[in-house]
Amino acid sequence: MYKIAVIPGDGVGKEVMDAALHILSGLDLDFEYEFAEAGDECAEKTGDPLPDETLEVIRNSDACLFGAAGETAADVIVKLRRELDLFVNLRPVRSLPGVGGLFSGLDFVIVRENTEDLYVGLEEYTGDGAVAKRVITRRACKRICKFAFDYAVDEGFERVAAVHKANVLKKTDGIFREEFYKVARNYPGIKAEDFYVDAMAMYLIKKPREFEVIVTTNMFGDILSDEAAALVGGLGVAPSANIGKKHGIFEPVHGSAPKIAGKNIANPTAMILSTTLMLKHLKKKKEATLIEKALKKTLKKGIKTPDIGGKHTTTQVAQAIRDELIEEYLS
Q1: Which of 200, 110, 208 lies closest to 151 in space, CA to CA?
Q2: Is CB count within 10 Å lower at the N or C end of the chain?
Q3: DSSP strand pairing (129-132 vs 123-126)
Q4: Does the record bear Glycosyltransferase in its keywords (predicted)?
Q5: How many other C-beta atoms lie within 10 A of the C-beta of residue 5?
């Protein structure tokens, strides 16, 4: 029996979470779900966007599914990453049928360090502006690079690319590049290479098929992964995983989308694919593959939400995927 913490959160987070759970219910999974609150609505109700009770539920779970947070996102998901030492942010970039991305046949992943960089929030005002401190440690660089190489081995990839700006940020990104190549020595079967972040931003547009695993620091990873999502159809199809040694939180990249919340038109794809990342994390690769197949079949039939050219509701898409899943599961 696995304990799964479920945090729908704000806005469309509730709608896409309902869709994902409906699809998961089509499988015979030994899951026990425990619901918890976090986000804007939680802050309005309790005065705290991330109550201690919610944090405790996640700590006691085997994995957590998270929908979306609104204005309090930094107080929720960023805090969770630090509190639980979720040092990996994994963002797969894969082409899907019928979505209309800029490229077809893409299959790469961005591995983003998740705990330091400018996101530590060490800012202060000065007489004429403000200063932010960028924190980069050898320990964090080493473990994120090791994760990237291990992931490449596990998934059958042959190349890992480090992204940095060591020509300008000579000390911080210099450390990241040094640790990357130190780790690379232990993986002689994997080709290691590095790129400046501005060049990588261009290469993702010009020749994204040349990349397999990209590993980088926190802020560069945040920016590049959103750029990469545009290549395959946008944030509505972009899943992510926050992974540490003991805990994992799986969430769509998109936010709470208040303008469409409650209209039943939010694209559930990113949330559904985030559940497949969770299933793989829990060593349930067969079930994850079944959901991915059902999703692709549904998209091929043109059953999709308006953001990717469809006319169907969130509920209709979820039901169609579940129907495909059950058919595949029983066959």
Answers
A1: 110
A2: C
A3: antiparallel
A4: no
A5: 23
Same domain assignment for residues 91 and 121? no
33, 170, 181, 198: the catalytic one is 198
Q: Is 128 a catalytic residue?
A: no
- Catalytic residue flag (residue 165): yes
Q: Which of 222, 280, 284, 307 is catalytic?
A: 222
Check if 48 is active-site: no
pLDDT tens readout for residues 168-218: 999 999 999 999 999 999 999 999 999 999 999 999 999 999 999 999 999
Both 211 and 314 in a single domain? no
Domain range for 144 is 107-231
Q: What is the pTM of this model?
A: 0.94
Rounded Cα distance between 115 and 143, Å, is 11
- 34 with 121, same domain: the answer is no
Catalytically annotated residue among 10, 40, 117, 165: 165
Domain CATH for 39: 3.40.718.10
Is 222 among the residues known to form the active site? yes
Q: Which residue is catalytic, options 10, 14, 18, 119?
A: 119
Residues 156 and 272 grouped into a single domain: no
Per residue in 50-70, pLDDT (tens digit) is: 999 999 999 999 999 999 999
